[in-house]
From TrEMBL:
Record has Iron as a keyword: no
InterPro entries, A to Z: Methyltransf_11, SAM-dependent_MTases_sf
GO biological process: methylation
GO molecular function, one term: S-adenosylmethionine-dependent methyltransferase activity
Gene3D superfamilies: Vaccinia Virus protein VP39
Keyword Cytoplasm among UniProt keywords: no
Ranges of residues in domain Methyltransferase type: 53-118
Name assigned to this protein: SAM-dependent methyltransferase
Any Pfam family hit: Methyltransf_11
Domain of life where this protein originates: Bacteria
Keywords (A to Z) from UniProt: Methyltransferase, Transferase
């Protein structure tokens, strides 16, 4: 990152943090759990009613959702031009439609300061396609299109990415450099705390 992006006043944005938010970042999501966390005793009441699992209730008790900020990433990002030093998002982009992905990439490029970094983690589509077995296509298709998530269709996967498609996406959005990275390797701050899926992902960084 350049001196512009290292400025002490510039903030770092975590898109789709869910239960993985970390200190020092603006942790955002659209999950209902951020609203539950804001209502005293709501998590306990939902847990007692059998509407919140033991594991999720434990996360509420640990304050996992208390620091989340609501942000709809399909709309313009609520940040000024060149105001952020870093953006991180893991396993979120695949839940957007192609036009939404393109708009979000442009918005990320807009809000990043010169030299700022955006680190994106997504499922590796090339690896997924390599699993295709023509003798059993239905199993592959069910996995790709997440048929079992019919009741959660809004949260299913809507798009897929390769290293080349990510590079083209962010270069078209206005970034000057693009790099395929390895797990917990790169220039994004705090990747030792942010990266958490070592075996199934593309790790990608774009520099403004």
């Amino acid at each position: 990152m350049t001196d512009d992006a290292r400025g002490g006043s510039l903030e770092k944005l975590h898109i789709g943090a869910f239960n993985c938010g970390i200190d020092g970042w603006i942790n955002t999501d659209i999950t209902m759990h951020l609203w539950i966390a804001r209502m005293p005793f709501a998590a306990r009441a939902l847990h007692l009613a059998g509407l919140l699992s033991d594991a999720r209730y434990a996360e509420h008790r640990q304050g996992k959702f208390a620091g989340l900020r609501h942000m709809n990433m399909t709309r313009p990002l609520p940040f000024a031009d060149r105001s952020l030093s870093a953006v991180f998002s893991a396993h979120v982009f695949e839940h957007l439609f192609p036009d939404e992905v393109e708009r979000l990439a442009r918005e990320i490029a807009r809000v990043l300061a010169p030299g700022g970094v955006c680190r994106i983690v997504v499922p590796d589509m090339e690896r997924i396609v390599a699993l295709y077995d023509p003798a059993a296509p239905q199993a592959f298709l069910k996995g790709v299109f997440e048929i079992d998530r019919r009741k959660e269709a809004a949260f299913a996967h809507h798009w897929g990415f390769t290293r080349a498609s990510l590079a083209a996406l962010f270069r078209d959005a206005g970034c000057s450099e693009t790099h395929t990275r390895a797990y917990r390797e790169g220039v994004c701050p705090d990747i030792d705390r942010l990266d958490n899926r070592p075996d199934e992902s593309i790790y990608f960084e774009a520099i403004k």
